[in-house]
Amino acid sequence: MAGKSYTQPVTVVNDPRSPATVADVRAQAALQSKIVDAMKEAWDGYHQVAAMRALVAADTAVAAAKAFDSTLAAVGGNPDGRGGFGGFGGPRPAPTFVV
Description:
Number of strands: 0
Distance between the termini: 43 Å
Structural class: mainly alpha
Number of helices: 2
Shape: elongated
Radius of gyration: 23 Å
Helix content: 40-55%
Mean pLDDT: 81
């Protein structure tokens, strides 16, 4: 193609087996966009917590820094640990950035 661009008209139609209306499809697309945006925000938050933990880890001799790191770990999650569903019926763990 070497720098050339081509255009062609296209018509998109719903699957005739689907009962979804145009409004339904638009609402689904809007919801999916919000979900993707929220995932990006969570990923950014995870990186912010990881950066703070790295700074705190550089000064492990200070007791306050260790306590602060524990708080960050509780909020950010433990990337070395495993997520999962354990304890069916038990209390839900606090949400973190790590699944």
